[in-house]
Amino acid sequence: MTEYTEYMDGAVIRAGFDVPVEPLRQVTHYSGEDGCIAEARACTDTFLARLGQEWCVGLDARTAGDILLVVSELITNADRHSPGPYVLELEGTARHVAVTVYDSSEAVPLRYPRDPGRVGGHGLEIVDALAEVTVERVPVGKRVRALIALSA
């Protein structure tokens, strides 16, 4: 008989495997200098590799690409619409990856109706299609969080 343990985030892990109980977290700060978006994607790649090693999460190429796209869109929005600085926080378990971006602008991002003819303004529409998105004002600006469910 194989024993299983269910953790607080709902992940079920087979007994005997050394899997951490706390979610994997990584926080990176950006000033808005050139190259921040590429740097955020590289940091996310490293984070996803660690998630695979430390949480035994096997991400397929499409899911990893979706997570990188969410990071790109949220960091691009922060870079474009706030004077800086901004923070990228990544959190992952066997069940989800949360991408959170804090920036100094209090303006809540607009969700435009779907319009394939519109040039620009599709970032949040893309993120909404890939993740569960919440936007919240915080004392120094806002927090945009995208929760991406991982297939079991």
Structure characterization notes:
The chain has 152 residues and is an alpha+beta fold. Helix content is 32%, strand content 29%. It has a five-stranded antiparallel beta sheet with strand order 3-4-5-7-6, covered by helices on one side. It has a two-stranded antiparallel sheet with strand order 1-2. A hairpin with a 5-residue loop joins strand 1 and strand 2.
Write the layout of secondary structure elements.
Layout: E1 4-6, E2 12-14, E3 24-30, H1 36-55, H2 61-81, E4 86-92, E5 96-103, H3 123-130, E6 132-138, E7 141-149
Antiparallel strand pairs: 1-2, 3-4, 4-5, 5-7, 6-7
Helix pairs in contact: 1-2, 2-3
Q: Strand portion, in percent? A: 25-35%
**Helix coverage percent of residues?**
25-40%
How would you characterize the largest beta sheet? 5 strands, antiparallel
What series of H and E elements makes up the topology? Answer: EEEHHEEHEE
Quaternary organization:
single chain
Radius of gyration: 17 Å
The number of helices is: 3
Outline? globular
Instruction: Give me the count of strands.
Output: 7
Biggest sheet, spatial arrangement of strands: 3-4-5-7-6
Q: Report how far apart the termini are.
A: 21 Å
Determine the mean pLDDT. 87
The parts where pLDDT drops under 50 for at least 5 residues are 1-8
Helix/strand-derived class? alpha+beta
